[in-house]
């Protein structure tokens, strides 16, 4: 029984880790932290394999999101200072799509993990607010307020990088 | 924002593309997880020790890893890098503007005693360099030395002072002006047909290095220092693919800790390995590093990293920043 479960678990991990590491990476922004997060989630999945083996991926994703938010809570008082950026303004050049993409990415990296988790669930996973709330174990109201705060912070970071809302194009 | 949802989605997808193949200990996850279920009262320290003693590292053959198995040749990696570079929609600078390049670098300082290093250390530095597009105006460099790490076989003693420094970059025609090839405007005049570009690169030899070594170093310097037009960048990768002696190194980390795949080439009479590091999924250039190929007294054993850099951001700005030492908009011609 345990051998077949172990084979099933290994098969799941082999098949889905490529996709799961992407989620872990956008949550953490760091390869090693992403691997740690995925390893932790897989360990928890192994512990509950008998109950979750019919839908293991949803469980692993939920563990990763909740772990990430809890890391954020634990680390809140010890957060590292982010890299100081020098004041300069982006030029009005004909094609700013690459610059915009980089600026949005940089602003995303600067978000606290909790807010980033909400944005990842809403915009990377394309999940509705109710499902985001269920995964993070909070209310829909909290998801809304966190999303609003994250977007405000993102816009403010983009504005200070010289990209106003009208200059930013997809 | 015209379509903020799409911008955030695209940025998150781009970020996800930077993820390397997962290195996960599947057996360890299984054993540790199951052990927790069965023997919940055993302390975690004992459980971890048991798992480690029987541990087996498994690299997952997941989707990305399967893809990684196709990375076999230098030609493949550099072709993918060329195609990525050729597609990039980067800013188009015009005369009078500046290319601002933000990077992280670990550079070596050696204090010599006779023919060998008495002291040698790597300084981790954050850098932002503003290069004048035409080189008719001075540029500016911001350097923030944040840490010194002594090389393994170095003697104790002096290191580089930490902190911020600003250095002007003299304009064309001034003493100590950078080579003309570090001018964006000049780069736009170079051929983008690989054979012609190769001929141009090989026709410029300063001496001291073999022609192949110099071509490799010139390409590496250019890609790591400047914003290059997309078609030129693609051509540079295609020329690099023709330089003999390069190999692929599957798992390498750049100065910013990002992992990737490297194309490495021995230089300096085969005593050093010079690597260009690429994102494993997108093949965007991340950075580079140089490591020792042989033991070097005063420095370290083979594998010791003696230089590394990571590109963080390249953009175009209209003005130099104002700073404490009076450079910036008021900087004189030289």
Write a compact overview of the structure shown.
Chain A is mainly α and 170 residues long.
What topology does this entry show?
The complex is a heterodimer of chains A (170) and B (334).
Chain A: H1 2-28, H2 31-47, H3 49-52, H4 56-75, H5 97-110, H6 113-124, H7 129-136, H8 140-160
Helix pairs in contact in A: 1-2, 1-4, 1-6, 2-4, 5-8, 6-8, 7-8
Chain B: H1 4-17, H2 26-38, H3 44-53, H4 63-68, H5 74-87, E1 98-113, E2 116-132, E3 139-150, E4 163-169, H6 184-187, H7 194-202, H8 211-225, H9 230-240, E5 246-253, E6 259-267, E7 272-278, E8 285-292, E9 305-317
Antiparallel strand pairs in B: 1-2, 1-9, 2-3, 3-4, 5-6, 6-7, 7-8, 8-9
Helix pairs in contact in B: 2-3, 5-9, 7-9, 8-9
Shape of chain B: globular
Pick out the low-confidence regions of chain A.
Answer: 72-96, 164-170
Q: Treating each run of at least 4 consecutive H or I residues as one helix, how many helices of chain A? A: 8
Oligomer: heterodimer
Mean pLDDT of chain B: 78
Following the backbone from N to C, one meets helices and strands of chain A in this order, namely HHHHHHHH
> What distance lies between the first and last C-alpha atoms of chain B, to the nearest angstrom?
42 Å
Largest interface: A-B, 68 and 64 residues
Q: What is the mean pLDDT of chain A?
A: 73
Helix count from the secondary structure assignment of chain B? 9
Radius of gyration of chain B: 23 Å
Structure class of chain A: mainly alpha
Q: Runs of chain B with pLDDT <50, length 5+?
A: 39-71, 326-331
Tell me the count of domains of chain B: 1
Order of SSEs of chain B? HHHHHEEEEHHHHEEEEE
Number of distinct beta strands of chain B: 9
Q: Give the % helix of chain A.
A: over 70%
Main sheet summary of chain A: none
Notes on the structure:
The complex is a heterodimer of chains A (170) and B (334). Chain A is an all-alpha fold and 170 residues long. Helix content of chain A is 72%, strand content 0%. Chain A contains eight helices and no strands. In chain A, helix 1 (2-28) packs across helix 6 (113-124), helix 2 (31-47) packs across helix 4 (56-75) and helix 6 (113-124) packs across helix 8. The longest helix of chain A is centred in the first third of the chain and has 27 residues, at 2-28. Chain A is elongated and about 55 Å long. The termini of chain A are far apart. Chain B has 334 residues and is α+β, with helices and mostly antiparallel strands. Chain B has one domain (3-37, 93-317). Chain B contains nine helices and nine strands. Chain B has a nine-stranded antiparallel beta sheet with strand order 4-3-2-1-9-8-7-6-5, covered by helices on one side. The longest helix of chain B has 15 residues, at 211-225. At the A-B interface, helix 1, helix 2, helix 5, helix 6 and helix 8 of A face helix 1, helix 2, helix 4 and strand 9 of B.
């Amino acid at each position: 029984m345990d051998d077949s479960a172990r084979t099933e678990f290994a098969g799941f991990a082999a098949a889905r880790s490529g996709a799961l590491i992407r989620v872990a990476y956008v949550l953490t922004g760091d390869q090693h932290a992403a691997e740690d997060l995925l390893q932790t989630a897989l360990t928890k999945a192994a512990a509950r394999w008998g109950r979750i083996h019919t839908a293991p991926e949803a469980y692993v994703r939920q563990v990763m999101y909740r772990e990430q938010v809890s890391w954020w809570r634990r680390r809140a008082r010890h957060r590292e200072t982010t890299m100081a950026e020098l004041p300069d303004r982006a030029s009005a050049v004909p094609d700013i799509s690459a610059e915009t993409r980089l600026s949005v990415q940089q602003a995303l990296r600067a978000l606290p993990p909790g807010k980033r988790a909400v944005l990842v669930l809403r915009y990377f996973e394309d999940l509705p607010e109710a499902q985001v709330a269920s995964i993070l174990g909070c209310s829909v109201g909290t998801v809304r307020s966190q999303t609003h705060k994250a977007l405000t912070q993102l816009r403010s970071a983009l504005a200070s990088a010289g990209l106003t809302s009208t200059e930013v194009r997809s | 924002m015209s379509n903020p949802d799409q911008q955030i989605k695209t940025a998150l997808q781009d970020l996800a593309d930077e993820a390397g193949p997962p290195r996960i200990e599947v057996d360890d996850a299984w054993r540790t997880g199951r052990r927790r279920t069965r023997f919940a009262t055993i302390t975690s320290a004992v459980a971890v020790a048991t798992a480690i003693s029987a541990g087996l590292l498994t690299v997952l053959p997941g989707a990305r890893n399967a893809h990684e198995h196709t990375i076999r040749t230098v030609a493949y990696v550099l072709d993918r890098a060329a195609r990525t570079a050729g597609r990039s929609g980067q800013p188009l600078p015009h005369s009078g503007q500046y290319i601002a390049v933000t990077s992280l670098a670990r550079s070596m300082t050696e204090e010599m005693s006779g023919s060998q290093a008495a002291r040698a250390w790597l300084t981790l530095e954050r850098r932002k360099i503003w290069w004048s597009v035409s080189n008719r105006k001075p540029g500016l460099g911001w350097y923030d030395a944040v840490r010194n790490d002594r090389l393994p076989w170095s003697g104790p003693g002096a290191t580089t002072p930490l902190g911020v420094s600003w250095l002007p970059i003299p304009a064309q025609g001034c003493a100590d002006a950078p080579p003309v090839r570090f001018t964006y405007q000049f780069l736009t005049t170079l051929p983008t047909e690989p054979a012609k570009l190769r001929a141009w690169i090989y026709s410029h030899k300063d001496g001291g290095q073999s022609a192949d070594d110099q071509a490799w170093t010139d390409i590496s310097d250019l890609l790591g220092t400047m914003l290059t037009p997309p078609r030129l960048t693609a051509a540079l990768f295609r020329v690099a693919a023709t330089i003999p002696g390069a190999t692929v190194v599957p798992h390498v980390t750049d100065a910013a800790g990002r992992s990737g795949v490297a194309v490495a080439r021995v230089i300096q009479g085969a005593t050093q390995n010079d690597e260009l590091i690429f994102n494993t999924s997108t093949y965007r250039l991340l950075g580079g590093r140089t490591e020792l190929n042989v033991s070097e007294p005063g420095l370290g054993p083979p594998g010791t990293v003696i230089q590394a850099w990571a590109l963080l951001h390249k953009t175009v700005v209209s003005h130099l920043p104002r700073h404490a030492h009076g450079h910036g908009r008021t900087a004189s011609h030289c």
